[in-house]
Amino acid sequence: MPHATMEILTNGWNVLVILLGFGVLIFIHELGHFMAARWAGIRCESFSVGMGPVLGAWRSGIGWRAGSTDPATIARFGKPAIEMTDEELARNGIGETEWSLRALPLGGYVRMLGQDDLDPAKVSEARRSFQRAPVWKRMIVVTAGVTCNLFLAIALFVFTFMVGVRFEAPVVGSVVPGSPASAAEAAEGGMAGLKAGDAITAIDGEPVLTFADIQIAGAMARPGDALTIDVQRVDETGLAVARTFRIVPRKDPATGLLAIGIEPAMSGVIGAVRGEEREIFDSTMSSAGLGPVFTGTKSDPLRSLTEVIEPAAGNRARDVRSVMQQYLPASSGERVSNSPSVMMLLSEAAERAAGAPFDTQWTTASGAIVTRKLQPVPELQLMVTPTTVDNDAEIDKGLLGLVPLIRVDRVPAGSVNDATLRAGDVLLRAADVDGPRLSQLRAVLASHTSGNVDIVVLRDGEPTRLTARVDRSGRIGVVIGPALNNPATAGTMNRLATEATGTDGARPSAVAALQLLPRTVVRSVAGTPVTDWTTMRAALLVATKDAAARGEGASVTMDIEAPTPAHERSQVVIAIAKDDVLAIHALGWDSPVTAAIFDPLMTRLTANGNPITAVRMGFHQTKTMVVMTYLTLDRIFRGSVGVEQLRGPVGIVHLGSRVVDRGVMYLVFFLAMISVNLAVLNFLPLPIVDGGLLLYLIYEHITGRAPSLKFQNAATMVGLLLLGSLFLFTFYNDVMRLFTGG
Prior knowledge:
Number of domains: 5
Distance between the termini: 28 Å
Largest sheet: 6 strands, antiparallel
Shape: elongated
CATH class of the largest domain: Mainly Beta
CATH architecture of the largest domain: Roll
Number of strands: 38
Structural class: alpha+beta
């Protein structure tokens, strides 16, 4: 069977599983209302899972029918069950409730005699009507659905903690350059910033158990307020020490959420990939010299990194598995220690190799051990230039203010430009911007959202004009990186700052006075030919070696080629300040293998078989989710969480279909979270949901009369308008995410 067909079937199965799970949550919610209504003596005329047309229904005494049971009831007794009295129902031997399954899995309802959310005028004075029940009983009926969802969530959480559920570990794999985490203020003094290998243990006094806890804490922070973050760090002597930092989250342009700017730690296991992800793994492994994972040895692909052999350390092998050992804290079950992650091991080996190839050992699917030699890649200088936008800063990597051009590393299948752009294309122009840096490219794309942008790329050595599509999020659907194999430069960074958060300490860059045009090519440095950014860096290091030893600045001659039709060449002299000389001599080497090929380092939340601990963890997780849902609504109103982050039923199903691949326990955990969200959203004080109905009952209890029908009708219309608008908005966002891969 073709792979594409298998993938469609797999995704279809995942969607079906989530739809069934979503249906169970709705069923439990409505069952709470139903059971409470029966206890209160209120007649229940229908119990529906889903909305819209009836697919099938069952009624005691009538049986199962396609569509409603009403036609069969009318045929036998001359009128529908809803028009019969209790005595007639008993005499005819049929039940008062029709149980139905409807076409749209977007909700459900229990219809009680004299109660209709959409039509407040449908009241009844019959003995068993909703209106005739005491107010306190009606309050119990209205709140029973929410209560059942909360108890279901607790039960599901308890089950997952009894068995154990795996999450990404709260260990820092890398710190985004220039992010809040990179400049985190140390409470005890000393060196600022989080670093790879830090295990985050608490945020604002709340224990951190998973990497998701860190992301949520950042997103839910009050804008401008600092978070207090406790970490465990291994110092130079190998001892674990506790550190505390203060970090003010900033909005991440990629997600639109507040974040502190860290990435999770990776394990040594090559990820179990789905079809659309295989290109990432194959291209990453090929560029690293490992060969394609799926096509190099088709019958025996690589599965995990086993050892990193460090030539500069006396050919000492570092066993990846021993580094990834786990420890067991008292409060939360298994958790990964803050030993270095696999990416740290690879980076350390590349640094010790000092540019020379180093060996790594990998385990294949059959268990065989194979050796692969990796070529380290040179680090470039982290450069920060202040901007006038919200006192923000632009961050890029390069040398002395020179920045590499942007290259297309990969075009994912299904990209909006999969027929336009190719891997290896080097971006020469975007709209009217020559040699755009990353921030300039983002600005160009943001001005062409949901449209087209004219670009010029270098393809097979020739400039090629193209028209690229831009999605509604201002993206062109490709993975980009620096064009390090091309000695051409993008627009220079003319002012460099010492801090990523402001303009303090800003100074002209070494190349600012040259006023170089974008796409200028560096041909030599101090007489040494330059063919790429690796040789450019090496030539600069040789030319400034003596100055670095003396702790002085230096003047260096560069041969450059202008981006003109005649390709004029000229020599320029750049004055390199002492700080820049020292900065480029401090640059090291990094691993060519990126984190993209590995599974994250995982931790398992478990009660270790203790049911009391599991119950306590279940209640705590439910409380946390309730608070988090309310905080999300608060942050939406404050503006730190965009409304585009909201998901409707389509988005929940789409997200859930991905969750299924993570295993049964994670699916159960996901359904528990959705159950909490259903409870909270149903309890909001809005018309036509349970919270609004409860407010009506509180008013009736205080005043002795229900709100007027005029008010209820107006409130119902407002509620329908609000919820309808929200549904359309989230539906649109959900569908667009499906097409853009969001």
